[in-house]
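job 3f2a | input accepted
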Amino acid sequence: MSRQPAPEGLEPLEAVEATALPAHPRQIQTGLRLNIRGRSVRLRGLRRRPRGLLRWLVILGPGLIAASAGNDAGGIATYSSAGAKYGYSLIWVMVIITVSLAIVQEMCARLGAATGRGLLDLIRERFGIGWALFAVTVIMIANGGLVVSEFVGIGAAVELLGISKYLAVPVAAALLWYLVIFGSYDWVERVFLLMTLVFFAYPIAAIMARPHWGEVASGAFIPKLHADSEYIFLLVGLLGTTITPYMQLFQQSSVVERGAARRHYGPERIDAYAGSVFSNLMSISMIVATAATLYVLGQHKVETAADAARALEPVVGSAAKALFGVGLLGASLLAGAVLPLATSYAVSEAFGIPKGVNLDFRRAKIFFGLFTFLIIFGAGLALVPGVPVIQLLVGIQVLNGVLLPIILVFILLLINDKRLTGELRNTRLYNILGWGTFALITFAVVVMLGSQVLALFR
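job 3f2a | predicted structure (458 res):
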């Protein structure tokens, strides 16, 4: 069947709705088709090419969602703790991590577009089932703790709003479960994107807190190191909460689910970069806001969500707790859906099991079953009385920092495999930045673990 040219100003829409997507979405071609590899397919036809601002808004998707989800309950707790304890002196770490995050997220998007497959699927095929099981174990440990932390964040947020967590957490769990199980992927993605709007409160707070901008610039461009173990602990926490393993999983799997083609990869690259920069601008704003308020006032420890909320007082005064509660709730809900999804994608890919939110429960029982279990597991443990919220949230981010180098090695080896990625493999610059990121994080983790061990003998 010959391809019909698209009228001027129109472009064929590559996305399809099918009973089952092909194993490699990149093999979907533009133009009308009656079937793909023997599967019945209904094409949506032609659409007019978006122009101007709309064109750029359409581009944004998995990259913005994945990076913004990193500003979750644990992220807010870690950034707030860093600003309150050390003022502006850790901002330089965030500047470096912004580059690293953009590089890592872009590599995952490119790997998804080049292969049409998720990260764990590629690990299983390239390195064998043993390494795939090892990667799954790492991800389950990292993500299991994070799922709990998101529902802990939901509980802390609603209590700031005067609502019992024992009522709100089960309702939130049910809402997120319903959203993913019964919503289409496009709908789920739009809801996630809307949730990211809550982060705009932080740059406003950072400006209205009237920080000393000379000290902010010094903290951003002049590295300052401290020898105490708490500083190193927080530094690893910043690395772990900013470049979290589930963000890479979600980025790549979402690009695959979108059906991004190898030859039309450009928008996914823009999305990955834009999402990373946006996310870390919000993160730096959190550090600046808490440094200009809590640190300056001598409140160097953030022990409760109410403590962290004080950073927003320059913006809304006595309403700071309510505004912070809304922001924390939105952040936790966003990550509370993304995390179980990313984990379900990873496990399904490792074992070659059908996956995707565009499927139904009957065709992806294990995928949706694992998602359901993680929602119940996270919400259940979050309701345990007496949980030290901030300490738990920061501790889990440090755990992610410890596990992150393992995932980075797999990503770097796969993206450089010419048989998989062809012309989309890493350039020399990307390899320098990618392996440099791995070396930086590994060194920080080794120093932190060493300092913790030495502390035991003092």
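job 3f2a | Residues 69 and 335 are 5 Å apart (CA to CA).
job 3f2a | closed
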